[in-house]
Amino acid sequence: MTPPSAPPWRRREWLAVPFALAHGAAAAAPSAPAAPGDKPALPAVALLDGATLDLAALHDTALVLVFFDTSCAYCRRHNTRLEQLVRATRGQPLRVLGVAGDRDPALVRDYLRRQGWTFAVTLDTDRLRPLLTTRRVVPMTCVLDRGGRLRELIPGEMAEADVLDLARWARPA
User: Which of 21, 47, 84, 89 matches a 20 to 30 Å C-alpha distance to 13?
Assistant: First the structure.
């Protein structure tokens, strides 16, 4: 059993094990997120515009994922800087993907329109976050290099210069 000192999300995972066993599902121990240097197996995700983005198929493209909430003022400032990064790196092998923690797609679409952000956004936070981090802070920026290796996990709002510096991951190794 998980000790009482474990983080709440870990205790919830272990509480699900007896339920899964009782209902005939194979209950495997929860896996840890990728560590820096690892190549996480990222799934295809549904985007808000209706398209599907196969993250595993982004060959030779750096990926900046940012977990955010529409109610977070820090996220708004941070993502405005990410939009600057998108514009500054057009034509370069770098992709920005927003991962909204909100559940209402219409609310998120309206929010994105009002902010003027053009980067792709998904609501698949429950599938992506456990693969990359246990941290629940927003914004949370995760950077994968052009080879698909996790390179940076940056909790909290970043300064403009730091966000724009993420363009370095688009350069060849």
Answer: 47
**pLDDT one-digit tens code per residue, 151-173:** 999 999 999 999 999 999 999 87
Tokens 């003022």 belong to 73
Give the pairing type, strands 140-144 and 120-122.
Answer: unpaired
Specify the DSSP class assigned to residue 166. Answer: G
How long is the chain? 173
As a whole number of angstroms, the distance between CA 112 and CA 120 comes to 10
What is the number of other CB atoms lying within 10 angstroms of the CB of residue 173?
7
| CB 29, CB 87: distance < 8 Å | no
Q: Which residue has the tokens 């909790």?
A: 155
Inter-residue contact 164 to 158 (CB < 8 Å): no
Burial of 140 (0-12, 13-18, 19+ CB in 10 A): buried
DSSP 8-state class, residue 35: P
Question: Which residues in the chain land under pLDDT 50?
Answer: 1-3, 6-29
pLDDT digits (tens, 9 = 90+) for 20-30: 444 444 444 45
Selection from 147, 97, 143, 149 nearest residue 123 by Cα? 97
